[in-house]
Amino acid sequence: EARINAEEDAAYQNLVQLLGLPPETVKQIEAAVEAEAPPPEGLADRLTHTLENFVHQ
Questions:
Q1: Residue boundaries of the structural domains of the chain
Q2: Can you list the residues of the chain whose pLDDT is less than 50?
Q3: Which long-range contacts (CB under 8 A, 24 or more apart) does 47-50 make?
């Protein structure tokens, strides 16, 4: 099974586009998320949560 489905991917790509973050920043955030212990939520939820924390720093 894929780690992320097509709907989650589309929602995530839309979020990244709306935030207007530089690609390098997105890569850094994604790497930080991948380094964390996997919580019970899905990848899209983890990425969204991490992006929210990053934006509100």
A1: 6-55
A2: 1
A3: 47/12, 47/15, 48/12, 48/15
